[in-house]
Amino acid sequence: MISFLGASLILFSTSWMGFAMAKKVKERPKQLRELKVALQSLEAEIMYGHVPLDEAFGHLSRQLNEPIAAFFGELAGALQETASSVPILWEEALTRLAERSSLKKAELEVLQQFGSTLGRHDRDNQKRHIQLTLSHLERELDEATAAVATYEKLYKSVGVLSGLLLIILLI
């Protein structure tokens, strides 16, 4: 009875790890799409709405899903509360986003580079920076979509099969 319980726990644990890894792989393209939508909306707010960044970030935080919404919400709040520069606040919020999201280092570096230009240029140059960032994120999205097709099923299978292997080895 105890060995059955132990085997069940092993199988459950390894399966859970596999499914958790698969979920993280599956979330990455969704979050990249959210970021693209956010940057396109930010571009519209800057170019046509002439909205200050704190208001634009606040609008984005209400339109998007987590964890991207929290990222822009933090930025909006920080811009209203402190006199720090936008790139510094962007960097701090990006560090917290990295902990909560499925984004990889390459995507975070693209966002970091974009954040260093935010609020430092006129509208036309800012639009160019947004377009450049969008093109980088599009490439990352293509790669992330391919990774879902490749790795999601793999992680789930490896989780279950490694649990079964451990059970067989322990019996």
TrEMBL record:
Keywords annotated in UniProt: Coiled coil
Pfam families per record: Spore_III_AB
Parts forming coiled coils: 127-154
Protein name stated in the entry: Stage III sporulation protein SpoAB
NCBIfam families: spore_III_AB (TIGR02833)
InterPro entries for the chain: Spore_III_AB
